[in-house]
Amino acid sequence: MRNLKTFVVCFCYSLLLVFFMNGLISKILFEGSYILPAETLVLNIGLAFLLSTFVVLALGEGLGGFALFILTLVLVIGNIIKLVFHNTVLRPADFALMEELLIIGVRFIQPWHIALGVFVTAVLVFLIIKFRRVILRGIIPKPRLGLAIVFLALIVLSDFIINDETKDADTKTRLETEGFTVFNYINFRDMFDMYPQEPEGYSEEAMTALKTEFQGMSDSNSVTGIQPDVVVVMMESYFDIGSVEGFGLTEDVTKYGRKYNKGYMISPKYGGGTASTEFEALTGFSSAFLPEGIVPYNIYMKSGEKEVPSIVREFNKNGYETTAVHPSEADCYSRDKAYNELGFQRFLTIEDFDVEEREMTEDKMTKDFKVRDKIFEILEEAESPEFIFAVTFESHCPYYNKYKPEDIEFDAVGEGLSGSNIKEILQYSRCAEDAAKMVDEICEYVSKRERPTVVICFGDHLPPLGGFSKIDYLSDLYQKYSTPIMVYSNYKDIADIPEGYISPSYLASYIINQSEISHSSYFDFISEAAETAPILNRDFGIDYNDENVEKYKLLQYDLFFGEKYLKE
């Protein structure tokens, strides 16, 4: 009878979990169009039943139920956060970003959150004290090992019927094929396998052949010997919101930067993942060849000791002073270690900024004009050619307490937008206005300089605005992922990006080419690959049979994870 009760409770739990999470995913990620085939739904419920029953049997009803409750809480809350703010679902790799989550998460806390937290904590403490004897008896492990082993065996056997052929596909394709439970089971099973597998065809002989090909590829015509100063600014959550008609902004807040537009970047992430875009733009490596959800800085570059190919090293070889700038903590996304592996000679953090209260937003983020001033300062003091890579911070979410109402001199009058949507749009638009003005002011400053200078600015990803769903903005993949690339030079004409849209991994070679410095054939190959596969993003579909894509994947594996046959 006791076992039957356990089975019934676990089955009901499995039904509720699967239907709730599938409904949530359908509503937010698939806009209501997500329906699992019957056989896939049965497999998901069955696997959830096996897993939950095993936990309860292995630990006992009390401790097992508590463990299941905590796990469910993490899954549900984590997925809601990821779905709402990033239009995707929770993955094991996200837990490697807990430090960054805590740093950013505190900015979302409002007074009522604190009051609710204090109240809930007080109630829990009261209940724990009042029922401490019952609780203590309940959490004592009371395993039923015989049955637990049977269910563990069933879980192992079920692994043979689970189809994981799509585990390298985009999230939507995986969820449609696998379902919520199977998706999470495969992710958990493979969570310690975060390094990509050796690609088919990888060998010393194959790399030697590629090396010969690359050595004959270097474009000496692109090297002029001018050695301009190069300023690259990656702008937090920046996109051209002034051109979004559905929001009905009464002022074109991004007009200041639009005149420098030369094309668009297709971000590897929506609503977050700054460090992934940054990684691609600095290395020429693509996130599309890595397990989905990975932030390379936090997983692969935490030692700070290995040498990673990068545009930074190319500028170092050309006698440049290379400086990274970000008005935040040095260890955010492990940048202090990652920048060392990329070859930066110095890294200026918030400790190097003298920021007054009025120079920060209401939620204590350094305003973009401080980054502008730091760039001017570096250029003024330079004694050798400068390569500056700056990351801004003002536009980071959340967007409800950055500015006082009197600091926003425009309105949003789009149809169907709620009051909270409008407030969020206005707060973000104020950020975008400051960012666009910063671009214009940097370019105006450069126009008056005698030294040849190139400025390249781009957004890392779109902001996670709730209003997007009200105007069906994210259903167009180009709108969901594209941010403008703004370029200016005071000594030469800058042509538009031929492909119109490029992934940030190709932005690396674009920066090298616009700088006209001597460089390795690695970046010449990346320029060539951009001609046949300009967008490397799983959601757009990747032609892995494309010859350049095959070579690109081999090259990246060799230089980042393999034997480094191509290093020289």
Please, could you describe this protein's structure?
With 568 residues, this protein is an alpha/beta fold. The chain is built from 22 helices and 8 strands. An 8-stranded mixed sheet has the order 4-3-5-1-6-7-2-8, sandwiched between helices. The longest helix has 29 residues, at 419-447.
Widest sheet, order of strands:
4-3-5-1-6-7-2-8
Average pLDDT, rounded to a whole number, is 88
Oligomer: single chain
Order of helices and strands: HHHHHHHHHHEHEHHHEHEHEHEHHEEHHH
Structural class: alpha/beta
Strand content: 5-15%
Q: Give the strand tally.
A: 8
Largest sheet, strands/sense/barrel: 8 strands, mixed
Using the alpha-carbon principal axes, give the shape. Answer: globular
What is the radius of gyration?
A: 26 Å
Number of helices: 22
Q: Tell me the helix content.
A: 40-55%
Which ranges are low-confidence, i.e. pLDDT below 50, for 5 or more consecutive residues? none
Q: In whole angstroms, how far apart are the ends?
A: 70 Å
Secondary structure blueprint with pairings:
Elements lengths: L1 H27 L9 H22 L1 H26 L11 H8 L5 H20 L1 H8 L5 H14 L12 H8 L1 H10 L14 H12 L13 E7 L19 H4 L2 E6 L7 H10 L12 H5 L10 H7 L3 E5 L9 H8 L3 E3 L19 H14 L4 E6 L27 H29 L5 E7 L7 H4 L6 H5 E8 L11 E2 L1 H12 L5 H12 L14 H14 L8
Parallel strand pairs: 1-5, 1-6, 2-8, 3-4, 3-5
Antiparallel strand pairs: 2-7, 6-7
Helix pairs in contact: 1-2, 1-3, 2-3, 2-7, 3-6, 12-20, 16-17, 20-21
